[in-house]
Design goal:
The structure holds 2 protein chains of 2 kinds. Chain A is of the alpha+beta class. Among the domains of chain A are: 169 residues, Aldehyde oxidase/xanthine dehydrogenase, molybdopterin binding domain (Aldehyde Oxidoreductase, domain 4), CATH 3.30.365.10; 182 residues, Aldehyde oxidase/xanthine dehydrogenase, a/b hammerhead (Aldehyde Oxidoreductase, domain 3, Alpha-Beta Complex). Chain A contains 21 helices and 37 strands. In chain A, α12 runs parallel beside α20. Chain A is globular. In chain B, α6 runs antiparallel to α9, α11 runs antiparallel to α12 and α12 packs across α13. Chain B has a domain of 103 residues: CO dehydrogenase flavoprotein, C-terminal domain (Enolase-like, domain 1, 2-Layer Sandwich), CATH 3.30.390.50. Chain B is an alpha+beta fold. The chains are: A alpha+beta, B alpha+beta. The structure holds flavin-adenine dinucleotide (FAD).
């Protein structure tokens, strides 16, 4: 993710990371921003807990503070998606639907071997196939780690193993063809003949760690510019065989205190080994691009979550100035973190278009989507927690291994480090294990669901040892005021007090309940800008390259503009997903809303001020005495005196006025550049039924209590949290990449055998939003997408334990695992 | 998918006169698929195989529009005739079947998805090829395709969905959960070829890997399934079917079972119990049937039958868990059939 990369750079410049405590403290009240400032009185705190007003010094040209949602007209009100109708009627055009005159169709050829040197590539038969116009052989593989000689001065020097890139996983792309029909391209790609020198390989995490395991990268050091699954891989770590690490730091600092001492002081120690599986992103729309390379520049239609980032990469790869690269993503069918950059398919499509002089559409098929363009890495974690008899934490120690295949970043996040800040001593060691499998990629809260699966189960285990309720223990050891409130409201809504003892549910099909907490950083993309235009005919427009990943930012932007101008969201035209507009943020790290709504509001405020100045003479008052209310401009202390919005804009001195704004630092500053103070919380409560004869687990009911600063569109928020929960249940119970270790192939690279939860697996879901005002920007909005996904699997696991009295330490929780666990515990009981 | 020629057959005679090859033969490694002609009914399985590049016929004969094969017809004495082009959705919704052959309508209503059930035909369902993921992957030339290895039976293989019985040669399970119920009712197939019509019990139509690992049944070239006859059930017959999958939506059976029971004076006089997804073919659980015969059907006898159902199972590395699942669903289906 672009932001992480930038973060790391700026962090280096700054020197040492700020201390953890500072990270999570709120910014100093009244803290002065550089330059001219003014003081604003802003709402601050958690609604229903500690809401008050504070004063903040903010840049002088920032708009006045927004009041709380209950006093607003559009923000915080459930708002139907502006594009809902377009989507459900099929009018919305996705990359897959782009059809340009003369367009060719592309298909890639991929290696059937998991590890091999390519001796030769013969494309002659493919070129002769009727309809084929061009063939392209891949020069460098993007998206996986880069092998480099550690002694080499230039870190960019890549050793590829010969003339062609070395094959390191089954499904690695080698070449691509373009033809006049998709069918011709598909058939022709199969005619490409490659001579391989097949090498030994390893796809299994445990096997890859053995000293005699085949080496995925020839034993040389690897590094990776891009983010893998764990939110980025630290640079410069040592590597032994296929094992790289440990990474011991996080953006919150990493180790603290003295764990040895902490464990010595402990009266209770709980410990467990937790395993989570590989999850593929499986978005509805596969990765793909339509590339149109012309003498005057390159236009690509791309299914991406970062148009601006993709433009930068394409400009760099094709040595074009950014002015000659345009990336368009009008609608996209999901990404979950995997759709960043140009991709091998994009580079191939662009090269094929360049060669042929006509547009080329290259969309991956479902198999390719599963094997080659990202996944959530698996993990094996050993977590150990020490506590006093009363539950007071004394130490926590984490060792994790995970594989992002040929990529890096298989960490389990920072959740064990930061969720329970009463813990004085923490140490974490996270290792990447390289295997001959497709590269991991960022996936909805990279690392955190894995981390939570271990942490939140073990905290429950500790509560049981201490002899207190799982939520009561959290009340004691969790410093977050937000989560305390979420536990309270969530427990009440869920009926937590009716919880039974583990295994106490009678009968063959047992019921159980469990809860788990969530946490996720508050990331801001500083390259977030937009332009707001106001036309003399009364039409209003906002433009930014920000793309709608599916979360509904189009509607959110319309709401922000509408609120400021006293209009309705449907009055606003939102133009996004095109790099010809001002650069917007990438949609990852749950940062879209928090990044782009403040400049949107500020820009709207500015055109609004200009409009008020233009109409003030006609109303005979100073501009400052005017306000936008209900489609009118009214004189504040004489509401009878007004002009309709349409009448008002006719007074503009020119056909159009506009303002372009960029995201500013948080009011009061950042904890680290691009990272706001604090983290988002959340807790999810789950009720399951478990059939103890067949091992079948069904999630019956979920209550989620979450926060995202100021909620903008509760309807979209709810849908985002529903999605996070469903994806979490799907990971907890069903999804799994089945990799044949004998031959190195994914066996279930389709949507038939790669099991994603379906309509019958959807439980009743109840969402509670706890509103918070952080007084950090002109909208105070923050993200939700990732924190909604963090707690689910852990909560399901805790509920399964409560139902059957046996803990499951490995995902997915299939009938097989439940039956095995029950059988094992029976055996144990038998022996006692 | 490869390019192919297409013919839409207008009569059974015309269809069987087309020199067709069973799909199983067209999929052999050494076959010349481009010269093969195959039948397509709903196309659900045929297109799946073609999209996976494990089947590439040169010519396809569409039989979806053949007249008269899409009806369900109750015949007082004989039983009920199901035309080969009857869809799974038709089976699911037919009132007569729901009354007399409950296990079948239960099986139909739990197969695949509503969309698939609307397209899938009965003949195609019986003829579908196994969904073993090694078999369906073009990179694996397995025994079924004329290769020399069963990849699913190799040490370390991914075989959690595979067979737990009759799995020594090949452990692919048959995907037709409809057949689980059909076999339990003693269904008879009517096969029409250029030489005429033959009838064969469905149970005998299926062949084990030991007999012929490359084929799941004994269909002959040019032969078409035209009818499936369900014998009329005796008075006092009850039946039930249970499908167990990892998910309820869109999933295949991990284990399924059909039970048909006759009871007189509180005792079981006839039992037909068939396991699906247990073996390469729908499997009569004769030991389970024996455990019920002559006994009253109670929780206890049903449990014993459930235990007996998988006696002698030879699970692979990853699928021993299927044994207790079969025990549970066999027991439950027996108890439901008692009341049905
Ligand atoms: C997601 C999914 C889930 C599924 N789940 C289930 C399930 O739970 N239970 C289940 O039973 N099935 C399941 N199926 C399989 C599905 O029911 C079959 O693929 C379908 O019934 C095949 O019927 P068809 O008419 O489409 O056959 P086609 O694909 O047209 O043909 C299949 C085969 O039968 C041959 N054939 C067709 N008709 C005849 C005939 N009359 N005589 C001789 N040969 C013939 C063809 O040559 C071909 O070899 C599932 C399929 C999918 C895609």
């Amino acid at each position: 993710m672009a932001s992480y990369r930038k973060l790391k750079k700026s962090a280096k410049k700054e020197g040492k990371f700020a201390a953890l405590a500072a990270a999570l403290a709120a910014p100093a009240i009244g803290a002065a921003a550089p330059g001219a400032t003014r003081s604003l009185t802003m709402p601050h705190g958690i609604v229903g807990v500690n809401l008050k007003t504070i004063s903040r010094d903010v840049p002088a040209d920032e708009p006045p503070a927004l009041v709380t949602n209950d006093k607003l007209n559009v923000l915080g009100k459930p708002t139907r998606r502006l594009d809902a109708h377009l989507k459900v009627t099929g009018q919305a055009k996705y990359t897959y639907d782009v059809n340009l005159p003369g367009m060719l169709f592309g298909r890639m050829y991929r290696s059937p071997h998991p590890h091999a040197n390519v001796r030769s590539v013969d494309t002659s038969a493919a070129e002769r196939y009727p309809g084929v116009k061009a063939v392209y052989i891949i020069e460098t593989v993007v998206g996986s780690a880069v092998e480099r000689d550690p002694n080499h001065k230039n870190p960019k020097v890549v050793s590829t193993g010969g003339k062609f890139p070395k094959v390191r996983y089954a499904g690695q792309p080698i070449a691509a063809v373009a033809a006049t029909t998709q069918q011709a391209a598909d058939e022709a790609a199969r005619l490409i003949k490659v001579e391989y020198e097949v090498l030994p390989f390893v796809t299994d995490l445990d096997a890859a760690m053995k000293p005699d395991a085949p080496l995925v990268y020839g034993g040389k050091e690897v590094s990776m510019g891009e983010t893998g699954g764990g939110g980025g891989a630290a640079k410069g770590l040592t590597q032994k065989g296929n094992v790289r690490g440990p990474a011991t730091k996080s953006m919150f600092g990493g180790a603290r205190g003295d764990v040895e001492k902490g464990f010595k002081e402990a009266e209770i120690i709980v410990e467990g080994e937790f395993r989570t599986q590989v999850q593929t992103h499986a978005p509805l729309e596969t990765h793909g691009m339509v590339a149109d390379y012309r003498p005057d520049g390159l236009t690509v239609y791309l299914s991406t979550q970062d148009t601006a980032g993709a433009r930068s990469e394409l400009a760099e790869l094709f040595k074009l100035p950014k002015t000659e690269v345009r990336v368009i993503t009008e609608f996209m069918g999901g990404g979950f973190g995997a759709k960043y950059g140009a991709g091998n398919y994009g580079v191939a499509a662009t090269n094929l278009s360049k060669k042929t002089g006509v547009p080329v559409r290259l969309m991956l098929d479902r198999r390719e989507e599963h094997i080659a363009v990202g996944n959530r890495p698996n993990s094996v974690q050993t977590l150990r927690i020490g506590a006093k008899k009363d539950g007071t934490l004394t130490a926590m120690q984490l060792v994790s291994h995970g594989t992002a295949g040929v990529g890096l970043g298989a960490g389990v996040g920072w959740i064990a480090e930061t969720m329970y800040l009463t813990n004085p001593n923490f140490k974490g060691e996270q290792y990447d294990v390289l295997t001959n499998a497709g590269p991991g990629a960022a996936f909805r809260a990279p690392g955190a669901p894995q981390g939570a699966f271990a942490l939140e189960q073990l905290i429950d285990e500790l509560a049981e040892k201490v002899g207190v309720d799982a939520l009561a223990l959290r009340d004691k050891i969790d410093k977050s005021e937000m989560r305390r409130e979420q536990r309270r409201v969530g427990a009440e809504r869920f009926g937590w007090s009716k919880r039974q003892a583990p295994g106490a549910s009678p009968g063959v099909v047992k019921r159980g309940v469990g809860a788990a907490q969530s946490e996720w950083g508050r990331f801001i993309d500083m390259d977030s800008s937009c332009e707001v235009r106001l036309h003399q005919d009364g039409s209003v427009e906002i433009r930014s390259s920000v793309q709608d990943l599916g979360t509904g930012i189009r509607t959110v932007l319309a709401q922000v503009v509408a609120e400021e101008l006293g209009l309705q969201p449907t009055d606003v035209t939102v133009r996004i997903g095109d790099t010809n507009y001002p650069p917007g943020p990438g949609s990852g790290g749950s940062k879209t809303t928090g990044s782009i709504t403040p400049p949107a509001r500020t820009a709207t405020y500015k055109v609004g001020q200009e409009l008020l100045a233009a109409v003030a003479p006609a109303l005979g008052v100073a501009p400052s005495e005017l306000a936008f209310v209900g489609g009118k401009i009214v004189v504040k202390n004489n509401p009878g005196k007004s002009l309709s919005f349409r009448e008002a804009v006719q007074k503009l001195p020119s056909a159009q006025i506009s303002a372009t704004e960029k995201r500013k630092d948080d009011y009061g500053g950042f904890f680290r550049p691009g990272v706001s103070f604090g983290q988002s919380g959340g807790i999810q409560f789950v009720e399951v039924s478990v059939d103890t004869e067949t091992g079948y687990v069904k999630v019956e009911r979920v209550v989620g209590a979450h926060d995202c600063g100021r909620p903008i569109n509760p309807l979209a928020l709810e849908s985002q949290i529903n999605g996070g929960i469903l994806q979490g249940i799907s990971w907890a119970l069903y999804e799994n990449r089945h990799m044949d270790r004998n031959h190195g192939h994914m066996m279930n690279a389709n949507l038939d055998q790669y099991k994603i939860l379906g309509s019958r697996e959807v439980p009743q879901i109840d969402i509670i939003m706890v509103e918070e005002y952080t007084a950090t920007s002109s909208t105070d909005a923050l993200g939700i997408a990732e924190s909604a996904n963090v707690a689910t699997a852990a909560a399901v696991a805790n509920a399964v334990y409560n139902a059957i009295g046996v803990r499951i330490y490995e995902l997915p929780i299939t009938p097989e695992r439940v039956l095995n666990a029950l059988a094992k515990s029976k055996q144990k009981l038998g022996k006692i | 998918m490869n390019a192919f020629q297409w013919t839409d057959a207008t009569s059974v005679k015309q269809a069987t006169g087309q020199q067709t090859t069973p799909v199983a033969d067209a999929m052999l490694v050494n076959a010349k698929p481009e010269s093969a002609t195959i039948f397509k009914a709903g196309g659900v399985d045929v297109l799946d195989l073609m999209k996976e590049h494990v089947l590439a016929p040169g010519r396809i004969v569409g039989i979806g529009n053949l007249p008269k094969l899409n009806a369900i017809r109750a015949d007082g004495k004989e039983g009920t005739h199901l035309g080969a082009l009857v869809t799974i959705a038709q089976l699911e919704h037919d009132g007569g079947l729901q009354k007399s052959y409950r296990a079948l309508t239960e099986a139909a209503s739990h197969a695949a998805t509503p969309q698939v059930r609307n397209a899938a035909t009965l003949g195609g369902n019986i003829m579908q090829r196994p969904h073993c993921w090694y078999f369906r992957n073009e990179n694996f030339k397995c025994l079924k395709k004329g290769g020399t290895v069963c990849f699913a039976n190799q040490a370390g293989a991914e075989n959690k969905y595979h067979a737990i019985m009759g799995n020594q040669t090949c452990s692919a399970v048959h995907g037709s959960s409809i057949s689980t119920a059909l076999v339990a009712f003693g269904a008879q197939l009517e096969l029409t070829g250029p030489q005429g019509v033959r009838r064969v019990p469905l149970e005998q139509f299926f062949v084990t890997p030991e007999k012929d690992v490359q084929r799941e049944n004994s269909i002959q070239p040019n032969e078409l399934i035209t009818d499936v006859l369900l014998p009329a059930p005796a008075a006092g017959t009850g039946s039930w079917y249970i499908k167990f999958g990892e998910r309820e939506s869109y999933d295949w059976a991990l284990a399924d079972v059909a039970v048909v029971l006759e009871q007189r004076d509180g005792r079981c006089t006839k039992a037909s119990i068939v396991l699906g997804a247990a073996a390469p073919v729908p499997l009569r659980a004769t030991a389970a049937e024996a455990a019920l015969l002559g006994k009253p059907i109670t929780e206890e006898t049903a449990r014993a039958a459930g235990q007996a159902a998988t006696a002698g199972a030879t699970p692979l590395e990853q699928n021993a868990y299927k044994v207790p699942i079969f025990a549970a669903i066999v027991k439950r289906a027996i108890l439901k059939a008692r009341e049905a």
